[in-house]
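Reopening this one. Same input as before:
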Amino acid sequence: MKSDCRRFRSLLAEVLEERAPLLELGWHEHLFACEDCRGLLAAEEALDTVLASLPEPSLPAELARRVLERLAPYRTASGGSDPLDPLLDLDAPPQVPDGLAERILAGLSSDRAVSRAGAVSLDGLLGAVPEPVAPKGLSERILAGLEPERSAHSAPRGRLLALRRAAVPVLLATAAVVAFVLYLGGRGGRVGVPDEGAREDRLARGPSTVPSPDPISPEEALHPTE
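Same output, byte for byte:
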C-alpha cells in the first residue's frame, strides 16, 4: 500500500473519532484521485455520505463504527502512518523509459569503436583539455617581482671577486704541492734518506752531529739534477 493511502485512512479514522482538526486534512483531494480508497468506503456504503458531507466529513454512528473497523489495520498508536510504509514503497522496480538503454549505447558506439581501434592517443586527450587562461597582466607582475633577483645576478663584478677570493687558497696549496714534488725529484725521490757518502761521513763524525740538508735554490727546483 502506498504511504499516501495509509496516511489518508489513518487521518480519516482520526476525523471520525474527532481526534484530528480539519486544518490538518488534505485527504479529500486524495479521495478524488485514489480508486482503492474510494472502494474501501464504497464497501461499507459510506462513500456517498462522505462525499456529500465535504468539506467537513461526517457519518452516522453505526456507519462510522463499521468504517472505523475497516480502517483499524491502518491506524497506528501515534495516529500517523507507519514509518515502514515509505520503505516499502521504495521496494519497486525502477521505471525506465522505453528505449533508454538503446539510445545510450547508440550514443557511445562511435567512442567504443575508436577505443577498440586504438586510435585514442595521449595527444588527443591533451588536445581535448581547454588551454588555461592567464589573468591579464600576470606576466608583467611576475617579471616585476623577479627584477631584484635578476639585477643581483646580472652584476659580474661581485661574482668575479668571490671567485678570486676562493681561488687564492687553492693556488697557494697547489704551489706548495708542486714545490714539494720538485724537491723530492731533486733528492732522488727519497724523503729524509741521505746518500751513502753522507751516511759514512755522518758515522765518522759521530752521533752528536746531524748534517742538515743542503738548501735548494729556485733553479734547482725547476731543473733538478740527475
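So the earlier flakiness isn't reproducible anymore. For the record, Residues 3-90 form one domain.
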